Amino acid sequence: MKLIIINGPNLNLLGTREPNTYGSTSFETYLQTLQSTYKSRVELVYYQSNVEGEIINKLHEINDKNKPKFDGIILNAGAYSHTSLAIADAIAAIEIKVVEVHISNVFAREAYRHISFLSKNCVGSITGFGLKSYDLAIDYFLK
Ligand code: DQA
């Protein structure tokens, strides 16, 4: 199985960014843990961008029938989750299933984080389990 993790804005700063909320592990370090945990079962590709349009372009590219096929997308669009109709439309436009992931429990935070424009177009949303949210998303695709 081949999965892609797409992280949106500011998630390149994991490890140093608001550690009380997001922990003190960088995503690159965590990715190594994920890759060794799932190595015999999942090929994991990682993409991060701070730019809304680049995330949309990546979703289109993955969906291209002439490109190597992915079995699923794990998307943490960061703050764009709460603002981006364009990313929501891109998810609706592609065939590959998307699982929405958040590290923090967005429902325990500010009211503006309680709304996700993306959720309705995703198979499901996982929020609040720290970096383990990504493990849970991988487990969904595996099972
Ligand atoms: C986040 C939650 C968002 O509200 C926030 O803007 C992020 C990270 C999370 O993983 O908890 O950048 O998506």
- Proportion of residues in helical segments: 25-40%
Q: How does the major sheet shape up? A: 5 strands, parallel
Characterize the overall form.
globular
The value of Rg in angstroms is 14 Å
CATH class: Alpha Beta
Kindly report the average pLDDT value. 97
Bound compounds: 1,3,4-trihydroxy-5-OXO-cyclohexanecarboxylic acid
Would you give an account of this structure?
The protein has 143 residues and is α/β, with parallel strands linked by helices. The chain has a single domain (2-142), classed as 3-Layer(aba) Sandwich (Rossmann fold). 33% of the residues lie in helices and 18% in strands. The chain has five helices and five strands, in the order βααβαβαββα. It has helices spanning 19-22, 27-37, 52-63, 85-93, 132-142, and strands at 2-7, 43-48, 72-76, 98-102, 124-127. Strands 2-1-3-4-5 form a five-stranded parallel sheet, covered by helices on one side. The longest helix is centred in the middle third of the chain and has 12 residues, at 52-63. The model has no long low-confidence stretch (mean pLDDT 97).
Secondary structure blueprint with pairings:
Layout lengths: L1 E6 L11 H4 L4 H11 L5 E6 L3 H12 L8 E5 L8 H9 L4 E5 L21 E4 L4 H11 L1
Parallel strand pairs: 1-2, 1-3, 3-4, 4-5
